[in-house]
Amino acid sequence: MYLKKFFVTLATPTLLWLVSASALVACNGGTSSSGETASEGGSNSNSGTDTTTATDTNSGTMTESDSGESQSGSGVTNSGTNGDSQGSGSSSTGDPTTGVTGGGTKCGNELIEPEEEEECDDGLENGPGQACKLDCTLNVCGDGDQGPGEECDLGADNHNESSCKEDCTQNVCGDGFMGPGEGCDDGNQNNEDECTNECKLASCGDGLVSAQEQCDDGNQNNEDECTNNCTNASCGDGFIQDINNEECDLGPDNTNQGECTLECKLAICGDGQVWNLPPGEEECDDGIDNGPGNACNLMCMLNICGDGDLGPGEGCDDGNLLAGDGCSGECLLEECGNNIQDPGEACDDGMNGNQDDGCTDLCTKPACGDGFVQQSQGEQCDEGNQNNNSGECLLNCTNATCGDGYILQGEEECDDGQNNDNNANCKLNCTKAFCGDGLQQPGEGCDDGNNNNNDSCTNVCKNASCGDGFKQMGEGCDNGDQNDNQSACTLACEPASCGDGFIWENHEDCDNGGNNGNTKACKFDCTPNICGDGFPLEGVEACDDANDSNNDSCTNTCELPVCGDGYKQPGEECDDANNSNFDFCTNICELPECGDGYNQPGEDCDDGNLSNNDSCTNTCELPECGDGYKQPGEACDDGNNNNNDSCTNTCQQAQCGDGFQQPGEECDDGNGSNTDFCTNICKLPVCGDSYKQPGEECDDGNGSNTDSCTNVCKLPKCGDGFLQPGETCDDGNTMNGDGCSKICQIEPG
């Protein structure tokens, strides 16, 4: 049913053009030559008069120009060559069920007409996936349409490294061609070579990217950046990778006509790709240009006459195919052509046959998509509702060309417009860049277009380098991802050897390169320099005599024998291997003794000298008063406990006032008082010593009895016998009448 509608729509622009052109000839009095008539349900006259009229019960009356061909029946018209002045023409009856108009061709009538460049014509069987395509050309490998006997067909995308090979068979493991998702393909069943039977490189999965690998992440996840075949995740490898924003991936079954597109997006109406392979039922898809008034509606069905949507090339569309209601069954305004602009008409120039004069024969203004090429509008083509940005005539009515930014289905693999470049992802010839095409692309280090891994560019488009697995000129070895500075082949692609600076695992214990030496940390034979090997390690070992004796000139720790090494050498009294002088062996390896300057157990002190008059005696005892040695702070030290000799027990010189009665002292009370029972000069107190002692009234220390104190240390008074100041006499008594009165005044007389 959809196929039939598609054919009817194809017919519509041509039918309208034919009717308009025929009417124009009739008005101009043109002539028509006789032609063959084969009508079904109608008649066609070839009278040689100005017009040729055919009557059809379905389509009404059609008028043909001088050289046109009229085919009546079921609204079918196949117009002939426009403008042919020879006057020859033919009319044939069309299939009443096809409803096909080919814009000047008879494709779809089941007759192969070579003059129309038809290669086949299976009528209703023409179409996608069939032996004969809609344009009556044979379905062949490489046309982008998977036909009978083909496993796949990606058109210009077919190549032996693609998911679909050049012979339209799917690229599978074991066919000898490395396809998407394959790390290699040697076409054999030998698992012991560099390529396994699963088309994986032998080292794939080891986490190291070899020259033959695009990547290697060492895991078994096909949905990250690197597949299990060590190829970069890409659309077409059969795995859905979120990192590439993939919605689907059917591998070699991806196709822009199927449910998963070549861009790994789920097919939907509006994506610009016609999904017509089961279960898809799209007739068209112009992407964002889908919608009312356009060639393809929002349901991805063709805009056809009678659907109620005024589409490109239609003068009207009232939702039916009935005539006589103002809009004909061909969606022509029934008043169009009367040179009067009737309601619903944009213009009316009497259908003058000139579609580029500002008014078409459909009584519409010229517009891209009306089926007429208007050069004045800058149009290069116009296929009406067949305009498509993936077809030969773009939606802007320009011819599809490489570099226009639109991918011509079946011919172009890609088209990035002005960004096409032989060094970009889409090349100047609109084919996708791939490693091996001879053009260096983004992500490629080189591309020499050959399969030789021994030249300057490897097969994965990496510059030949140490580590690519191929021994190049100047390399001593190259084990690829097995190169390692600890293995037989170093990262510099040189065979491992003692002295190269790298420790060869299981062969060398050390390797310091040019710093190897028998007196260095690593010896010339790549073994470590250790104490006892007979080679003194400079800066570390003082000696190395390669024996186990500690009693010779070199100890077992490769040090010269010294006091403190723990080994008693000749000339040493002892050696306790420590730095303490306060144990049973000094730092000079001598037994401890008093006077050696070190305070040993049992000693109070040891100042290392022979002086008994300092802070430590010669017996290594702390000095003290009474030890017989005068120390600082002592006035004397007689070494006894006698306080009555010349040196007291406090080691002070004996003296008056020290509390000890020494020879020549009458007393010594150890204080500074002269008024007690012992004076400060250690004499017993006596009257006249100038100190008032107990029992004395006074003591002036002189022999005068006539002053304030008498010689008997009494205070002077009248009657004491001594003439004191104020007395005129003192007879030693206090009697009157004896010449001296009792108040010591001379009595008269």
Topology, pairings included?
Elements (H helix, E strand, L loop, with lengths): L1 H26 L14 E3 L7 E5 L3 E5 L685
Task: Give the N-terminus to C-terminus distance in angstroms.
Answer: 198 Å
* Low-pLDDT residue intervals, each spanning 5 or more residues: 1-104
Strand content: under 5%
Biggest β-sheet: strands ordered side by side in the sheet: 1-2-3
Helix content: under 10%
Number of helices: 1
**What is the CA-atom radius of gyration, in angstroms?**
67 Å
Sheet with most strands: 3 strands, antiparallel
Number of strands: 3
Written as H for each helix and E for each strand, in order along the chain, the element string is: HEEE
Tell me what the structure shows.
3% of the residues lie in helices and 2% in strands. By secondary structure, it is mostly loops. The protein is built from 1 helix and 3 strands; from the N terminus they run αβββ. The N terminus is likely disordered. A hairpin with a 3-residue loop joins β2 and β3. The protein has a domain of 87 residues. A 3-stranded antiparallel sheet has the order 1-2-3.
Short description:
This protein is low in regular secondary structure. It has one helix at 2-27, and strands spanning 42-44, 52-56, 60-64. It has a domain at 166-252.
